[in-house]
Amino acid sequence: MGVTASVAVSALSITVLSLVLKLNQAMLLSLLPKSITTPIGISLAEQIGGVQALTVVSIILTGIVGAMFSPLLIKLAGIQHPVAIGIAIGSSSHVVGTTKAIELGEVEGAMSSLSIAIAGVMTYMLIPPYLMLFQRIVQ
Q1: Contact (Cβ atoms closer than 8 angstroms) between residue 59 and residue 82
Q2: Is the pLDDT of residue 139 over 80?
Q3: How far, in Å, CA of 34 to CA of 16, rounded?
Q4: Quick one: 101 exposed, middle or buried, by C-beta within 10 A (0-12, 13-18, 19+)?
Q5: In the 8-state DSSP scheme, what is residue 36?
Q6: Which of 1, 9, 18, 97 could disulfide-link 28, Cβ–Cβ 3.0 to 4.6 Å?
Q7: Contact (CB, 8 A) for 66 and 97
Q8: pLDDT tens across 83-109, in order?
């Protein structure tokens, strides 16, 4: 459930921010894979028509920002369960964030690693139908 929520919130937040900031279609399509690993993100960006270089930059920045701020955000949100912490970090800030999750604890690191794979597969499977559903928004 946590990974599914993360994938959905990521896609919706990128879509809303793209509309608010009046980003073009290529930018939106390039930013949608930002919370998954680079190889999967590059492949997805190519499949949906995004700019691969922009996707790579957004993935790297997402990981770095996630690693830097995840402990603070987790503390502010009052999340204490190690499984929830690992899932939150792994499904939002992928491999770079997982290095921070490993520092927080063994369970956090393991769950973060597992979440990376699940989030990658789910994003790859759900973004194309999501784009078809919201085709008018994307164009």
Answers
A1: no
A2: no
A3: 15
A4: buried
A5: S
A6: 18
A7: yes
A8: 999 999 999 898 999 999 999 999 999
